[in-house]
Design goal:
This protein is mainly β. Helices cover about 5% and strands about 45% of the residues.
């Protein structure tokens, strides 16, 4: 999906990078129904599709935004039906490796 080629915002927070979905991406996706992706301590070595989203308008895989990196924390929004997410929601905290 070329329209979601860059769906992430990134913010440096000390030694870590916080990431979430941009307002544009959320608007294109519609209401998020389900999120699945890597668990804490997972190492992502390349930019590959590893976040799965089921949403009102699309079901798609999203490319990992920073590689190589390690997942430090996930928000409580993962693996819950109809999570409430907006463009300020920090979905993952990662560390470059």
């Amino acid at each position: 999906m070329r329209q979601l080629a860059n769906p992430w915002w990134q913010r440096v927070a000390g030694d870590y990078i916080e990431i979430g979905l941009t307002a544009v991406a959320l608007n294109q996706l519609g209401t998020i129904r389900w999120l699945d992706g890597p668990v804490p301590e997972t190492k992502i070595l390349a930019a590959w599709p590893c976040v799965q989203i089921i949403a009102q308008n699309w079901s798609t895989d999203l490319i990992w935004p920073v590689a190589p990196s390690r997942v430090v924390r996930r928000s409580e929004h993962w693996h819950h039906l109809n999570p409430v997410i907006d463009s300020t929601t920090v979905l993952l905290t990662i560390e470059k490796i």
